[in-house]
Design a protein that fits this description.
This protein is of the alpha/beta class. The protein has a single domain, classed as Ribonuclease Z/Hydroxyacylglutathione hydrolase-like (Metallo-beta-lactamase, Chain A). The chain has 4 helices and 13 strands. The strands form 2 sheets. It has a 7-stranded mixed sheet. Helix 1 links the parallel strand 5 and strand 6. Helix 3 runs parallel beside helix 4. The longest helix is centred in the C-terminal third of the chain and has 12 residues.
Length: about 250
Amino acid sequence: MEVTFLGTNGWYDTDTGNTSCVLLDTGGEYVVFDAGSGFQKLRRLVNDERPVMLFISHLHLDHLYGLHTLPLFRFPQGIDIFVPKAMEKPLRGFLRRPFTSTAAQLPVKLRFHAIDPETARFPFSFGMLRLRHSVPCYGYRIGSGAQSVAYCTDTGACPNLGRLAAGAGLLITECAMAPGDTGPNLFHITPETAARAAASGPANRLALFHFDPGKYPSFAERLTAESAAKRIFPETVAARDGTTIRL
């Protein structure tokens, strides 16, 4: 399994990167987490006709507006979009005029799937749990063979963060707050909180992403966050756009 970060910023683009999008190559499928502005890079990385499966965590625009670039995609196999059931109708509403091109107008075929975690069947092990955010937001866990990846963006500290981390080969989690930040933010976490979740799992490795560009205006601040997390969980990396991790 190989993970490539296509967008590592939170909520807007800067010189440090695009907004959230992560590609997991399982060997059998291309699994994509979220469709922020980094999503457009995917068209250069899908180079065969294996299934492309996009999982949406929640409906904030910084995780969706990369879908506006779908007219650039030419995948003959199409894209399967998986979203929690309550989010399917709003997402379909976003992918139409006057917001963007309608699905029927696109050169790539889209297939929408509302996820029922009780009955969902995938060619890999799968789990999803609700996280703590200002709108419904879900973390995902994908497993292939002995390896698994947990993807947890946009969340405050909550038990489900640790549950998704438990035994994961790689925990990917947001890092919107700065090291040592004690401000009352229920919906985002510091690098220390992310590291404690990884340690409590335990996960094998931790990758920080979804950096608030106001708190992390340069890569120097990301390195500070990485250092803060490593004091609690040594196997931590602060991801950048283009970072690749092999499991």
